[in-house]
């Protein structure tokens, strides 16, 4: 077969059932097989690489090779005992909807190109604003992830704060514009720093000191605001620190910034979902007073990658910063939603379809229960670990993130924490990675998969503790052996053992 005929590419009927088999096999295995990171780059190159094939390959063969590649090289990120980074699982209904998204191959841009997408964006936008208790009328954009949502929110912020100083950044650009002061939580996620970079705002970034868990100190903010007085101002805080899950003191933060005439942007990649629970009235009180919020659906809503959402309270500012109407995209429906007026992309995957499916299945109550369960599981995990001598929980476990330090009677804690993590990863009961928190090494655990059970938590905690004890014990054994050798040498030197 050296030229591909249309008839050759027909074959959904043969391919899709095989995909279903492979998918069910993979998903079924996830909970049972070791949670280990594959070390297979060379084998993947062998299997999937080499020169681009000159001639065509039968689709079934392509699929077979790809499935093999997936078996070899896919990380176990969907496992209920994968606690690495902050990686959400995938709800079955969201996966099903994601498959349909590909089947329908929808692309938003303007309403006409996908009435389904435009309408679902309206529906889900309102649902999410309600779920999180954001101001009625807050506008939304569905993005590839929280990084894009941060870029988009800060694009609106930049437009609005410059507008207040008589500058239209869309028309006049950034060169010669009034200088915008940006104050950010000193631990702000790299994603926000990238957004500021892209927007030409990093030059005037001032970091604001936080407490040990990563919340901006009101007094430090006060000082920063004093210095910024009168200038266009954006303040970036976080709802869910990447290591500790900490949430800013939202009420006073928003008040302080608004009194100074600034815009509050919150990086809320996973923490925003906690607003669906009763924590909305405690930890998240005052959330609605910010000006923009960026989050991920692929984290705590458990839809497949990739999927983020931006929320902007001032709809007019959002639209003014982004709306576009190129001549070639004729749209005659002024009332319908045209995706391109709200997002950064033009053509984009209809990410809202799995979001709609997940929200519909779970309902407000189901989202709240899933998020609360993960927070409770995190507390259980932390408690199990903390009962062991030498194990320190290095954060206040309020959300789903746990920062753990493993102490050793003689070794340095950073090294032992790394060694316990390596041994945990090697054992394959669960998986998580180290991070740096307050300049010290921690093991960071994130509970964020709908499929995780208490038994999964218990098994992972046991594995960690087993390795922590074994490494200490091994240290003891090594020291013991060392002292036997030393004694032996001393005895020898003293001539006692000489014949
Ligand atoms: C994951 C994360 C981001 C980046 O989100 P992406 O979806 O990876 O672009 C930003 N901030 C926080 C706190 C995160 O956890």
TrEMBL record:
Domain of life: Bacteria
Post-translational modification N6-(pyridoxal phosphate)lysine, affected residues: 299
Keywords, alphabetical: Decarboxylase, Lyase, Pyridoxal phosphate
Pfam family, one: Pyridoxal_deC
Names of the cofactor(s): pyridoxal 5'-phosphate
PANTHER family: GROUP II PYRIDOXAL-5-PHOSPHATE DECARBOXYLASE, MIP05841P
Entry protein name: Glutamate/tyrosine decarboxylase-like PLP-dependent enzyme
